[in-house]
Design goal:
By secondary structure, the protein is α+β, with helices and mostly antiparallel strands. It has eleven helices and nine strands.
Length: 305
């Protein structure tokens, strides 16, 4: 049975069966030589075949992992892009680029592109390994919002050729985000503790009623006016977790948090608003301005690509 071909770093495809055939022909050329020379040739062919099989297996596993990450994205996932597939207006050395998942709103994934291009794919890995992603201005400020289906299409077209997920914020031995020191609040903030407890329940899949507990606590946090709790409650309505999916309820709670100048709520409202026929972004921004929220609409308006 012939093995399937797999992708390698150069983008070409090599069939292990054709590899064996080629080396069999080469070995046949040594029929007139000493047995020691023939054995060395055979050993060389076997070692080369094992190396090829290892790289093929690794590439195949990376493809499987990348697809899983695209279908179930996490914030800080790193996308490896062949930007030549996405743009015809590039300079000769502008080939590869990184992008990072910075937000997930329902089935819309927000990416920020790196501000640098690389000639070789290895340069992408080296930029992470050398800590370049920790620089505050490595990623551009502009966000691009993609439906999950479009990210899948970008994978199929080769625009995205690999996706990596950091572990504890680390990838290739270095952080993928600017490390900010967390300063504990010294005063009581209504709703903050309930939001933290709800977030813990949301991740506790081993509990049968974890979603019910999370929803109840997020609801209490939201009603106390805690903006992150209001956003998390909105996300449960948006994703249909424990409750029926309800975009208008999601918009209501995003709006409540946005009125407190909470930037994530403003961005998420803009994304969901585009999915509701009677929602108008201009009215939303006007309400924020009249409420004294200091925003720059140009920066906050998402671009649904």
């Amino acid at each position: 049975m012939e093995l399937n071909t797999t992708k390698v770093a150069t983008g070409t495809r090599i069939s292990p069966s054709s590899f064996i055939a080629k080396y069999s022909a080469v070995i046949g050329c040594f029929s007139g030589l000493s047995s020691q020379t023939v054995i060395k040739s055979i050993l060389f062919a076997v070692v080369a075949l094992l190396v090829l099989a290892y790289h093929s297996s690794t590439a195949e596993q990376e493809d499987i992992s990348s697809l899983e990450y695209i279908k179930a994205p996490h914030v800080d996932d790193i996308y490896f892009l062949d930007f030549r597939v996405l743009s015809d207006n590039l300079r000769p050395k502008e080939k590869y680029r990184l992008a990072k998942v910075v937000d997930i709103t329902g089935e819309v994934i927000s990416l920020q592109y790196g501000d640098f291009f690389y000639v070789r794919q290895q340069g992408l890995k080296d930029s992470i390994r050398y800590g370049q992603l920790r620089y505050r201005k490595y990623f551009q400020a502009k966000r691009y919002d993609y439906p999950l289906t479009q990210l899948q299409n970008m994978w199929d077209s080769g625009a995205v050729f690999m996706v990596k997920r950091p572990v504890l914020g680390l990838l290739y031995g270095n952080y993928v985000s600017t490390q900010q020191q967390q300063v504990a609040a010294t005063h009581y903030i209504p709703g903050k503790r309930k939001n933290a407890s709800a977030s813990a329940f949301l991740k506790s899949n081993h509990l049968e009623d974890n979603l019910a507990q999370a929803f109840s606590l997020f609801e209490q946090s939201a009603q106390l006016g805690f903006a992150p709790g209001q956003v998390n409650l909105a996300l449960m309505y948006l994703n249909g977790q424990y409750v029926d999916k309800n975009l208008k309820q999601a918009l209501f709670w995003f709006n409540q948090a946005a009125l407190q100048s909470y930037k994530p709520a403003i961005l998420k409202y803009g994304i969901v608003c585009q999915q509701v026929s009677d929602c108008h972004l201009a009215d939303f921004y006007q309400t924020l301005l009249e409420s004294g929220v200091n925003i720059k609409v140009r920066e906050f308006t998402p671009e649904l690509t």
